TrEMBL record:
The keyword Transmembrane helix applies. It comes from the Eukaryota. The chain crosses the membrane at residues 60-81, 108-131, 152-184, 238-259. The keyword Nucleotide-binding does not apply. Pfam families: Myelin_PLP. InterPro entries: Myelin_PLP. One of its GO terms (biological process) is neuron projection development. Signal peptide: none annotated. PANTHER family: M6, ISOFORM F, MYELIN PROTEOLIPID. Keywords: Membrane, Transmembrane, Transmembrane helix. This is Neuronal membrane glycoprotein M6-a. It comes from Sipha flava (yellow sugarcane aphid).
Length: 295
């Protein structure tokens, strides 16, 4: 055998006995243990290595964002579904109107919850692929790296558009909460509670459909006042406040998603440089050990 041939069995020697043989720490800094199967790793070290490898494969930041998103979606859809039901009952029993699109809102809320849930699961999947050792295994080829970068860019664009939608929803809920607060102040006024005066909503006629009769905007009967104030306004105000909190959580999660996807995009893009650095370091260590064997 040529004297310039690198002897692989030499690598099985104790790494601390020779100053000129590449150490396990040097190679381990740039490679996985699976790439150097000749090393004899003790059982305890292997278990510790496996546990560390499992924890480094988990995208914690993406999971935190997903938790915020699921919480916000659950609060928003639950409260708004209840709010749409109360609004339909109020329009029917107090103002004698039937608003068909309120039933459509319930279906839209279900679709929003399903869509945001599916988007969250897909982003979590991308996060797992772009984290830790999984990234090193999945994005070795040039095509897979390009595909990973495109997927991150697409999700970033979708989330960026969704932010404008949820900002619009937040503005609507803030206005609705303000209106419900004004209604509740009218219901709790002394004139209504003690003197049983009518609740005059004619100044808010622009909030109601054009087909609403003006005399229906004056609530005078005790039954209607109780239903309007206790059963609708009081509960709806709480629903709108909680819905606003849910939208704020969703917006925070979307910003968090953008940060996570940007980091994943950068990791996938820089993975090619990491692979080149890994190969260069391995070649340098190999050439260094081979040159010392000549002497």
């Amino acid at each position: 055998m040529s004297k310039y041939t690198f002897q692989r069995p030499e690598m099985e020697m104790p790494l601390q006995n020779s100053h000129y043989i590449p150490s396990r720490e040097t190679l381990g800094r740039y490679s996985e243990y699976s790439l150097h199967s000749s090393y004899k790793i003790r059982a305890g070290d292997a278990a510790s290595t496996n546990s560390v490898a499992c924890t480094t494969r988990i995208p914690y930041a993406t999971l935190i964002a997903a938790l915020l998103c699921f919480t916000g979606i659950g609060i928003f859809c639950g409260t708004m579904y209840r709010g749409a039901t109360l609004s339909a009952l109020m329009m029917d029993q107090v103002f004698h109107l039937y608003i068909g699109w309120l039933e459509t809102i319930k279906t839209v809320l279900v679709l929003i919850a399903a869509g945001m849930g599916a988007l969250t699961l897909m982003i979590i999947f991308v996060g797992f692929l772009a984290t830790g050792a999984t990234r090193r295994r999945m994005y070795k080829a040039w095509r897979t790296r390009v595909g990973g970068r495109i997927s991150c860019a697409v999700f970033m664009g979708i989330i960026y558009i969704l932010q404008f939608f949820w900002i619009f929803v937040l503005g609507f809920l803030v206005i609705a909460t303000f209106v419900m607060t004004v209604f509740w102040k009218m219901c709790s006024s002394t004139q209504v509670q003690d003197y049983h005066q009518c609740i005059d909503l004619t100044q808010f006629h622009f909030l109601f459909p054009q087909s609403t009769r003006i005399d229906y905007l004056k609530i005078c009967e005790t039954r209607d006042i109780k239903f309007f104030c206790r059963d609708f306004v009081e509960k709806s105000e709480f629903m709108f406040v909680m819905g606003t909190v849910g939208v704020i959580l969703i917006l925070i999660s979307l910003v968090h998603y953008l940060m996570c996807l940007s980091a994943n995009y950068a990791h996938i893009r820089d993975h090619e440089k990491f692979e080149e650095l890994q190969e260069l370091q391995l070649l340098q260590d190999t050439d260094f050990a081979t040159s010392k064997e000549r002497f």
